[in-house]
Amino acid sequence: MPTTSEFSARLISQTTFIPPEDVPWEPSPAGGDASNLVEFAGRACYETWDRPNPHTAENDAYVRHILDVGHLSLLEHASAGVYLRGVSRSCAHEIMRHRHFSFSQLSQRYVPAEQSEVVVPDAVAADPEIAELLLHATDVARDAYEELLEAIEARTTGESNSVLRAKQARQAARAVLPNATETRFVMTGNMRSWRHFIGMRAAEHADPEIRRVAVRCLGLLRGVSPEIFDDFTITELRDGSLMATSPYVADI
Amino acid sequence: MPTTSEFSARLISQTTFIPPEDVPWEPSPAGGDASNLVEFAGRACYETWDRPNPHTAENDAYVRHILDVGHLSLLEHASAGVYLRGVSRSCAHEIMRHRHFSFSQLSQRYVPAEQSEVVVPDAVAADPEIAELLLHATDVARDAYEELLEAIEARTTGESNSVLRAKQARQAARAVLPNATETRFVMTGNMRSWRHFIGMRAAEHADPEIRRVAVRCLGLLRGVSPEIFDDFTITELRDGSLMATSPYVADI
Amino acid sequence: MPTTSEFSARLISQTTFIPPEDVPWEPSPAGGDASNLVEFAGRACYETWDRPNPHTAENDAYVRHILDVGHLSLLEHASAGVYLRGVSRSCAHEIMRHRHFSFSQLSQRYVPAEQSEVVVPDAVAADPEIAELLLHATDVARDAYEELLEAIEARTTGESNSVLRAKQARQAARAVLPNATETRFVMTGNMRSWRHFIGMRAAEHADPEIRRVAVRCLGLLRGVSPEIFDDFTITELRDGSLMATSPYVADI
Amino acid sequence: MPTTSEFSARLISQTTFIPPEDVPWEPSPAGGDASNLVEFAGRACYETWDRPNPHTAENDAYVRHILDVGHLSLLEHASAGVYLRGVSRSCAHEIMRHRHFSFSQLSQRYVPAEQSEVVVPDAVAADPEIAELLLHATDVARDAYEELLEAIEARTTGESNSVLRAKQARQAARAVLPNATETRFVMTGNMRSWRHFIGMRAAEHADPEIRRVAVRCLGLLRGVSPEIFDDFTITELRDGSLMATSPYVADI
């Protein structure tokens, strides 16, 4: 029986800011690299190095002002990357429709799925009998995958290159693998893209799995830059799952 | 037992060119809308309306020159869209990583999969016994999907909104649906993106299913604009499947 | 003295929709190609070919619903292109920061500027004395350009390739050409990008010249697709210039 | 007389890699953050954490292999930003056509140009007499700018908001400012975009000013990641300026 997979999200990259010495401005010690870089880029548009406006003199107030006036391109200068594991193939498919991110995903064509796990939706995991139904079905799929692998490799003995033969077998046999099959991938984007992703996918109406991914990423990104993500409020829904919203998220 | 799905690709949109009357240039009657528009945009950069260079006076020669010198942004002014059916979910996932296209895909969350079909890889379809293995497995998956749907809906009677309850059941139950499940989608892109997609995915090393999609799209796009796609040569591989290459496709 | 340039915007391309025959749905005769294509792509996500919801059965109501729920990616399937002339270089610079469009612009490196015109800002044109100031300055700049061309060509006689020598002279001499110098370009984008551009640049706070471009493009695009652009209201400002806004434009 | 401006490029941001502890792989101590992150993302696609191929076991060899096979999306996970000053407006215009970068540029609408400088093309600076021609013309333009500012502000006394009035005057008066006017901006992109930019703009045929920018950025990026940029060779042209090429740059 396939093991069920735990969702995991790790922050693996972030932007380091190197303030140029020959600009008459110092980053706020209270601010992080991402938000100070955003402020630097914003001030570069107006050369307001001396912080003439007292209401935006602090870094967090400056970033909030940027959200207020919608000068969102400034947020593109800082990026972050996460390594996600324990995500279902169907959820990954939905995530990868966000075209402003960069993705590198575990290949089903190159990597055999013998040891892969399945991601059980919360609505299924909540009831042992229903979970049993799902695990049985994915178990059958796994067995079929292995049978197919063997049968296809046996049939294509005409292909002398054994690496190629194995790849051809895998890319055909994976046809029976279920949506629930775990995948893993690196996902990198700038802060504007991350805010858009979280705004859309941490919302109540989103699919529960992608919502969980979005809320977890929000947590990691707040660690990177509280200034850029603190307008989001995380709340618990009736079913115990989490969602997040912000007054700055205008549209889905 | 699920029905197996036939791959289908239909051209559903293309760019119509409206040459401005107050420019001293006429489109070539021999050229199509896409390639004449590309030539117009190219000539607009240099205002060479009078076709001073005899080697590029004809529309097809002009387009070939653009490929030669790599002025590929001109190809972005013309677009085309196709409606694809009979594509497996796993193949669609791979296609949708091409971030310069626009996609609208049949939703597994909103649309029940009872009547959905499966896409059988050629390497499987070639041998009835192997195909039998696959169809049995996808049959089991379909049954499990229906069982799950029912069990989850029965369990969530607390949710009074029946539309929402059905959606919640579908988005959990689809976890057992296989990669082979058919999907359908609209895919729109400009000619530069299409050339890149075909260059990468019609190549020999590509997955057979995505290769079939790419070669078929190439056929449709040649109908739209022979000038922009005639550098590709389609050849048959040993297994009877098709591939396409062009000397202008530098990298994978 | 340089001639002043008239702003001109011509629609040069639009998307033609070819509804597939084997789908049980017909486009609305009242709708245009762009909005019917958008509806087709939307219905393809749910296979609601039979128009089950009476409130969105008409094409214009369907498009309005898409704006309401923010399913904006559907708007990407239809595109339009315009040919713009009589735009100042500084305004073109601002326009070309919109990264979701494709541009092909008249080259200052390849095309001599002897006969180029200047674009006079409305705030300047409104007062003959102020306009005189500007035209005198651009006149001096034009003379300097020609002097520089000649002087640089004379100096680089070491370069035997006369085409290259002329190009080198132009790319250096253009340094004195003013922001007001007219440029011309093709600008192509999908309906989502056009709505974003118009939402930002037809707003009251935008620079008057880019606002004029945006309002004029809105007029052309309404001709292409009233359904997709009719939520915008055009109003006249105190100074007689036009602006446009829509309740669907959430942020600048 | 306007002061001539010195070109300056400062590295202001780069990606820091945080290797996840629960992956059985350690970054190469010899490699930098960017190239180790790229290797991590590549290995995540195949889970070849144990470096099974001795030819790509070293980080620099791994990156070179990625260039060889064209798996360029991996390069998108690492980014860098530069702050550029002493760039002419016309050169900035050309740079900002590269749509995969993020830009934040000094505003001519908001910031008065009284103290702005001019960028003198090398072909002009090389000859004092020619330089004199240019500086005289830009001097006249500056004076005209100040006259226009004053005249327009005097004329629009009806507008009671003095900040708005000044902005309206600046956005009209800037029409006479020359292409040579200095601008400053932040430019951020991932390593794939940077390689593309350098491949196109450090080539011999590029405009001398943008070529200088590209070669200087190449120097900074090599400091960030020799592994990702060491295939480029910098050579001196006959006129003493620099260019760079790489065997991996297939097309312009």
UniProtKB/TrEMBL annotation, chains A, B, C, D:
Its EC number is 2.1.1.148. One of its GO terms (molecular function) is flavin adenine dinucleotide binding. The keyword Flavoprotein applies. The active site is at R201. Keywords: FAD, Flavoprotein, Methyltransferase, NADP, Nucleotide biosynthesis, Transferase. Coiled coil: none annotated. Binds 4 FAD per tetramer. Each FAD binding site is formed by three monomers. SUPFAM superfamilies: Thymidylate synthase-complementing protein Thy1. It comes from the Bacteria. FAD binds at S73, R97, H98, R99, Q105, N190, M191, R192, H196. Its cofactor is FAD. It catalyses: dUMP + (6R)-5,10-methylene-5,6,7,8-tetrahydrofolate + NADPH + H(+) = dTMP + (6S)-5,6,7,8-tetrahydrofolate + NADP(+). Pfam families: Thy1. DUMP binds at E94, I95, M96, R97, Q105, L106, S107, Q108, R109, R174, R201. GO terms for biological process: dTMP biosynthetic process; dTTP biosynthetic process; methylation. Pathway: Pyrimidine metabolism; dTTP biosynthesis. Catalyzes the reductive methylation of 2'-deoxyuridine-5'-monophosphate (dUMP) to 2'-deoxythymidine-5'-monophosphate (dTMP) while utilizing 5,10-methylenetetrahydrofolate (mTHF) as the methyl donor, and NADPH and FADH(2) as the reductant. Belongs to the thymidylate synthase ThyX family. Homotetramer. NCBIfam families: thyX. This is Flavin-dependent thymidylate synthase. It comes from Corynebacterium kalidii. The gene is thyX.
